[in-house]
Amino acid sequence: MKDEIILSGMQPTGQLHLGNYEGALKNWVNLQDDYEMYCCIVDWHSLTSDFDDTEGLKDRIIQMATDFLAAGLDPSKCAIFIQSEVKEHAELHLLFSMITPLSWLERVPSYKDKAKELGLDSYGFLGYPLLQAADILVYRADKVPVGKDQLPHIELTREVARRFNFLYGDTFPEPKALLTKFPVVPGIDGRKMSKSYENDIRIADSPEDTAKKLKKMFTDPEKLRRGDAGHPDICPVYALHKIYTPNHQEIVQPCESGELGCVDCKKRLTENINKTLEPIRQKRSELNNRQDYIMDMLKDGARRARKRASAVMEDVRKVMRIDW
Questions:
Q1: List 58, 77, 114, 283, catalytic entry
Q2: Span 205-285: which CATH code?
Q3: Confidence at 184, pLDDT banded by 50, 70, 90
């Protein structure tokens, strides 16, 4: 029996890159055998910043769902669905908005940072963390796999659950963060891998495209030519070796001595990344052009999610005495 419930979500950005895979998806695959798991493609959340770019939303959702399946998420073990297909998320968000002080939302660090960075000031953007709380609590999730940067969001969710329980009686658990140590995945320019930086390597990339991207990857700025002493600890290429190269420590000495040049180092990394991704890419190619299957899978996941969420909302309406 899977006694504990997990909710995980990801914005529909389309094809996933190695940062997405190593930072979240790989962990979801490992968790699905041990928990009752709901994996949500949060299309409503994406509208907080991409409200003027919805034309390709369906394709981005399908591409993401394809990567979910190719990486090993099993729809027989977890419900994979589109957020907006389960209207209970929106209903609970609305009810939470009636009891949540404005100051709670304004103090969330990501609101302040992104508002300044992206110039966003909409009501929906301010309420983003509260919708996230509804995403979690509508399933009465026990745990949420997150990195440290998301801890303020989980704490807000716990505060909202406590306030609701105080006002109406025990209804929601206070979910715990399931902290996972995500590896740092640098992009080819040395910064954090991100589509917005156009520095990403995607699951869907061909082996040849992966090789081309890695050829351009930044290396140790002090190692200008073969024979120069290298410093693996500051090299983005070595950071990827630590993820994809077995016995990566063996690279350190020849790099530091200058024996191993950057070209050969990148070739070794390319081989190992392509080898790791080969079975995922093979499965992905089998799923290509199966849009109807992907959408049917997402609709079935939404059906299963609605069954859980609707039961929770019945309890919510009852304790709030609005179960007309």
A1: 114
A2: 1.10.240.10
A3: confident
